[in-house]
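Budget justification aside, the reviewers requested a transparent look at the raw inputs and outputs of the sequence design task funded under Objective 1. We therefore reproduce one unedited record. The lines immediately below are the structure tokens for a 133-residue chain.
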């Protein structure tokens, strides 16, 4: 569970939980890391709102054979930390792994994190894939 710690600590901790849940095949665990009004904007698909839809998306990704994700934060920018509108913007890169140990794809992401009920959660999550090499 993410806490109201500083976002530069909460985000790496949240990413570690995300990777742990992904490796365990726990889509509901991943969805719990999002805010109650979280939204994902996956490539080539419509935006999806709320934890139920987010869990369904990640379950579908796992059902397609994805077994791991490695998240690498490049930067975290924090705004309004002492206000109710506090937000942290994370940019980074990811690697998706398949069940046979191969790399299924790589890409980059941008996540807007928001503090809700005393914990930082993924609020807006958008990513895209790198070209196949």
């Amino acid at each position: 569970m993410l806490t109201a710690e500083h976002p530069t600590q909460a985000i790496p901790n949240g990413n570690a939980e995300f990777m742990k849940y992904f490796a365990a095949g726990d889509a509901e665990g991943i969805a719990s890391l999002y805010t109650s009004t979280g939204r994902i904007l996956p490539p080539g698909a419509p935006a999806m709102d709320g934890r139920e839809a987010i869990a369904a998306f990640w379950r579908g990704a796992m059902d397609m054979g994805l077994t791991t994700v490695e998240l690498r934060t490049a930067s975290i920018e924090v705004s309004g930390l002492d206000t109710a509108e506090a937000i942290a913007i994370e940019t980074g890169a990811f690697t998706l792994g398949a069940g046979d140990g191969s790399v299924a794809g790589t890409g980059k992401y941008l996540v807007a994190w928001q503090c809700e009920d005393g914990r930082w959660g993924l609020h807006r999550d958008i990513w895209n894939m790198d070209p196949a090499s």
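The chain has a mean pLDDT of 94. Helices lie at 7-23, 27-32, 50-63. Computational costs for records of this kind are itemized in the attached budget.
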